[in-house]
User: Fold these one by one.
Assistant:
Number 1:
Amino acid sequence: MDQPTTTAGELASAPQHPPIRLLFPALLLVMLLAALDQTIVSTALPTIVGELGGLNNLSWVVTAYLLTSTIVVPLYGKFGDLFGRKIVLQAAIVLFLVGSALCGIAQNMTQLILLRALQGLGGGGLLVVTMAAIADVIPPAERGRFQGVFGGVFGLATVIGPLLGGFLVEHLSWRWIFYINLPLGIVALAVIGAVFKPHTAHIKHTIDYMGAAFLAGALTCIILFTSQGGTILPWSSPQLWFTLVMGLVCIGGFIYEEQRAAEPIMPLELFRQRTFLLSSLIGFIIGVSLFGSVTFIPLYLQVVKGSTPSEAGMQMLPMMGGLLVMSVITGRVISKIGKYRMFPIGGTFLVCVAMTLLARLQISTPIHVMYLYMGILGLGLGMVMQVLILAVQNTVEFKHMGVATSGATLFRSIGGSVGVAAFGAVFSNGLAARLQTLIPPDTELPHALGPAAIHQLPTALRDDYLQAFAGALHTVYLSAACVVVLAFALAWLLKDHPLRKH
């Protein structure tokens, strides 16, 4: 990793800023900690389901974390200003570590989902506070390079996550995917305690608790609706539609509250700003794509291809490597040429192509062909994710810098939460419908269908199950491709704005 050059060095020597050469690695470590836990679970999901049962609730192990981390993102931005970024960041790490330790001792799927939600309450603070800290000390003209490295670390975590998750599941236990956070988190706490010297002047804020409550209610109801429809509850269920109505009421309440609040979580005037609105919408769709694909690809590799958890982690390398390399390259190119619009256009196009190709996967598809598809997906995601944050920070007023950064991150996280829940429902519905067609009604399948149990089924039954499984994934990726077409169309509406020098 290159050392920051002259401009960063000058910033480092400025007495009013934390020393960048020490602060930057500390923030990277926190970013690694937060990003690692979004992906380390993916290769372990089939094993967790095999031990704890609950295939229908599989996506909630990911969704619970994403949902709670999404809800608290806007609050952490305000808390950082009110109490100081250092103490808020340390509190978020401690909460994250407590959640991780408790996840490791969960005894059933319900406990695990609830404790993942607790872990997310801490995890949501890690990403947003690190990004706000960088925006404090680096001007946008230089920030492309730094954001590129942040994107690279996010990519690195997505590389290490499935690999590390697979290794731990295979050689120790799935519980170690949570315990591994403890030493990393303690190191992050020690480094931040030693080197993070933020501004001491705290800003007095009015916290918009009502806005946060309405936002939490809206997200929870919408995700419950998308994940339960047609799986846990039939589409004709009054309870299901009542949940959706409550979600819409909460959205109305949120908009009303944001108009009245002294310091709204999400100032509605931001949505009149073209770049913020477009970046938020594109980020939402990219969140759907990223978390949807990272959840279901390891499942396909273990169930259909018979990969072990660690092999499935290794087989994710083309996607993660593409994301890592392209994030760093994109950041450097933007800093050099001062333009960024072309990257979201190209990136969303590549993501759409990759999703269409993944929708064509068969049981017999050679693994090297899948590597190609995943590589294209990684390159596309790497061209979009950090660029949207940079575009927002470059165009909003300075007084809205923190809330706009957290807002753009918020929409990507909401996309991830809704995407995993909705794709989980599409997958469960598709699998159940295909099994009904292919497997005789009197056939009993094991309760906990982990990869090992599936491969021990009688040959004819196993072949039918795998066919149904692959078919259900086709629907998931075809749905994702259709959604990404919208992001591609929106990316053309972005405009290049000269990068600020201050």
Number 2:
Amino acid sequence: MITKRIIPCLDVRDGRVVKGVNFTGLADVDSPVALAERYSACGADELVFYDITASAEGRALFTDILTETARRVFIPLTVGGGINTLADFERVLSCGADKVSVNSGAIRDPSLVGEAARRYGDQCVVLSVDVKRVDGTFRVFAKGGRENTGMEAISWIRRCVGEGAGEVVVNSIDTDGVKGGFDLPLLSAVTEAVSVPVIASGGAGRIADFIELFRALPGVDAGLAASIFHFGEVAIPELKQKMKENGIEVRIL
């Protein structure tokens, strides 16, 4: 059985980790480097860093914070935000990232996924998709969930995986920060559509939500969350122990 991963997500704005609800109302949390070290020490399997305003502001992703984090933390780092070209991939990887997450950049230039996969390998290319229901259909949103692209989400994900994306982070805007559980219908549709690892994001509020996720959808490879970890509502060691007790394979320190 494949070990399920627990991944804290650090949304970074102006050099600080922030968190909101439904992608709005952002509040300051902590230093990204300090948080990353803490999560690494307590058993997180990977970390995801998003520079959440880089795309909307049309600027390059932070690199100083990334370089310092990579120097101190020795679990895989996925980094995204403002990834629009192969040069952006190169810059982030050279700063210590293990994988690069692309979202709005792929929407603007769908060939970016395939070009990056060919140059750096599928395992380096993570497709991040912000999805919201619009008139009963899953739609892709861009620019941190602020812009409806009009594209149907499942077909977009299938297309990008076909181009070479080696992993998919599915961010449900409908459940983001609400803490009512992961978006199981959306995640089910994605896992049925692709065979690469799928990371569930948006909606975790308690340990039971992770248990429900992995029991209901064995095809989901990882659970990603932010505020419940940031504010101490769920401790990663306790979460993993409960997962193990419920028959879910997980890495324990």
Number 3:
Amino acid sequence: MSEKQEHPEREPRPYKQLASEGPYGPGIGSALITMVEPHPGHELSYNRWYEDDHFISGAMSMPWMFAGRRWVATRPLQLLRYPADSAVASPVTAGAYITVYWINEGRYQDHLDWTVAINRRLLPDGRVYQERTHVFTSFQNYLGVVYRDGDKGPRDIHALSYPYAGLIVEVYDAGPDQDPAALSAWLREKHLPGKLAGSPVALAMVFEPMPLPGKTPTYVKPVEGVGKRITVLYFTEADPAQDWDRFAGDGAAAEASGLGRLEFAAPFIPTLPGTDEYADQLR
């Protein structure tokens, strides 16, 4: 018997080395935000595939992705969206499901290397559901958070684990002659603090899309607006439809700032994992 067989623990183990190197703090460095429209007639089968397989094997089981949650827009919620001529979704009601994931700070490239390799396996193995359209999918760099209650309440790292009642997604594009950093600063320093004060919105997180990797599968829509686009995720303690008036004026506020245009504003509610709740309420 060889020495390696007698002492298998002496064999080199890549996982041990990978875990012993690099950042491993709890902070958010980036997010994967993916909004998808199941094709008509495939709502139930898409929902089961995503929850039972893809959410786990295509995301949560991967290194450095430490939280994830799915949200859904029923037809009444879809009809609240604006503007009608959105540069993000056409029609603006497209994208019934959205899933958000957190990636550890300093580990984006490591996660990306893993996810690209996994996705090269999933498609030939028949593990990719084809009857769907990616409406708004990208990895996004984290720019910061605004809290309603200062240092009280759940932190940003808990936002996908805390049972918030709603998620509101807004996407802004900087003007042709404007710096997106100025748009982000306006949102975080001027617009969001007053918006959250006294509201059911506990926190708002700000991101900027990054290009998808060069070998992204062809069924994923290329990221648009890289270098000029800002995404805001609001986590609300109440049904977002009941507080929608608070968001109805954001397009006008962005225009008045002179820094950019609101291209997408949409409310969502959380799915109930393991069920098909809401899948029959999308049309």
